[in-house]
Amino acid sequence: MRIISRIFGIILFLVLILPARSIVSADVGPKPPTLTVDFRFDIPTQEITGGELLLCEDETCSKFETVELVANSMSIRYKCEEGDCWLFFQGQTTRYLMLRIDFSDKTLTSNIFIRTGYDSAFVAEVTEDSLIIVPDPDNSTAYGPMQLCCFLPALILTILIEISIIKIFDPEWAKKVSRLSIMLVNIITVPIAWFVVPSFFIPYNWIVIIVESIAYVVETCLLFWINKRDGLTFKQAILASLLMNTASLFFYILSLIFIFQ
What we know:
Elements: H1 2-17, E1 34-41, E2 48-56, E3 64-68, E4 76-81, E5 84-90, E6 96-103, E7 107-109, E8 113-114, E9 119-126, E10 131-135, H2 145-169, H3 179-196, H4 204-227, H5 234-260
Parallel strand pairs: 1-9
Antiparallel strand pairs: 1-5, 2-3, 2-6, 4-5, 6-7, 6-8, 9-10
Helix pairs in contact: 1-2, 2-3, 2-5, 3-4, 4-5
């Protein structure tokens, strides 16, 4: 039975991993926040030839990191079509931003603008000598549409990954960890990962670290509390949580590689 159980677990895990490119939008972790800018011209439409997004440390933008605009990048890109120009950025949760845009005949630097939601939208008003960026409240949301539409698939995927990884390794104490308990701990921890932690404006790398730390601690405690009547010890709960979270984190990192390659 243990051999059959391991084979079943390996097959299930491969079914989840192999089509990763096609289901990357439903990976287990919270999506990086998004930023969109719609350009509106008070002059004849200018072609965007390049530029930089400035990620500012504070409201003065005296210190900043720059991200180069690339026409066909997955994480930051711009496009002009039939007089319509827009910019898309998916990445850091930096709150204060500036844009430096290269047009066909000039370079303009914007005012400092503030991201207020997980999925923030702005309008860039372009004149002969200025680039003014203002919020687009109709299209800004606390949580991005990708967060909302992909949450349920991500929850299901996380549960399947964590159940299958227990099947693969099938330790002696595996029978003490019920599938129901794995479902319950994820129903509690995945919403925290997707909606609570990302609502704070902190660097995205820290979001991942905080999310994984919370998930590990909470899952350990809940697995022990739910399964202790079946003989699961606290040490075994620690090992189970470590095993499950390592598997889901691996899949999450793999999916991010696909997104940003």
